[in-house]
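Q: I'm writing a short explainer about Family A1 protease for a general audience and would like to include a description of its predicted shape. Could you first generate the structure from this sequence?
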Amino acid sequence: VMPRFTTLLALCVTALTAGAAANPIVIRDPPISLPLVRRFNATATGGQTIVQRDQARARLLAARAAQAKASTSNTNGSTSFRRQVDFDVSDGVVSYVASVGVGSPPTFYDLIVDTGSSVTWVGATPDKPYVKTGSSVDTSEEVAVTYGSGSFAGEEFVDTVTLGSLVIPNQGVGSAQVAVGFDGVDGILGIGPVDLTSGTISGGGTITTVTENAFSQGLIPERLIGISFEPTTSPDQVNGELTFGAIDPSKFTGPLHFVPITSTSPADQFVGIDQTISYGSTELLSSAGITDTGTTLILLASDALQKYQQVTGATLDLVTGFLQITPEQFSNLQPLTFNIGGTAYELTPNAQLWPRALNTGIGGQADSIYLIVNDLGRPSGKGMDFVDGFAFLQRFYYVFDEGNSQVGFATTSFTDATTN
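A: Of course. Here's the predicted structure. Afterward I'll give you a sentence or two in plain language.
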């Protein structure tokens, strides 16, 4: 048994417009939803940890996409096991966390909500392992995923998963026997595209995601997830929600516009979009990239980030790894506009700031002004030139409509909110 998991550990570490697209169902009665909590992990001190974590994740996602494409292009159609190591949500380094039940009766785990991965697993810490119940079925297969900021490896089970009022039987769940980099959480709820599970399980093929499984069993009417975040200045606060199978019109104020998943590789394998990003009248970038709840900041290709730094006058703070501006520069800060499918989504000057109440949590000065835009770590032209993390997503309603291969955005009552 030990050699098997020693190997696992080694390998773990080693639109269509809204009018033209199929419109998702809008449920006006209380939808199936799950609360989200914003979780700030004080044990991972220093902004440099956040920046390095986000950059490492972006590199890993791009590499994983290339690996997945190579495995699915095999002439025999097989894939190899790579051994990569309404529902409230929390934002905590920083992540959004949901309480997810596994088993019958369920044991509840705090899982990071991640659109950049699709495997659901628990047992990140020894004090909260996977608990077998009468609904647990051991598949005798190994499962492992690497995330850039961490990894896990273990055994794959089929079990009952509870997401708020949504109870999904026969759902694949990983039981971690090795996990690295997940302090303060119990695992991950993977809600990205199902193809991202390719090569993560020893038996080959893919693992059905919770969204796909709920839809195929007729538990939700559409294969989509509506995601609502709210900006906050508190370290741990219930300030988000997942809605399964429908959109929740109470969560947004403006029209909901959809765009197709980008066709540009490797962004096309994630919740990827095409967009143009401008600061004031200066275009910074026009390319493909991804939207990702598992990334804290907004990451831009290095050349675009350099333009942003020049027009804002920001300087790099070596202590935190964040860009920093003076009060005078803040008074002159212009909107940062994301043009997606012909619709402009604007981050106000205030929305471009890291919450000042959390400055000391990133190792910064309490009265300093830090920006949420940072360096992707590579030049543009690579097919994944930006990552819109939840620093962007918390200002807009966000829909991943996997069934129609599209992504939706809308303004909310928090789009222009002042939180700093």
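A: For your explainer, you could say: Residues 1-21, 42-46, 73-85 have pLDDT under 50 and may be disordered.
Q: Perfect, that's easy to follow.
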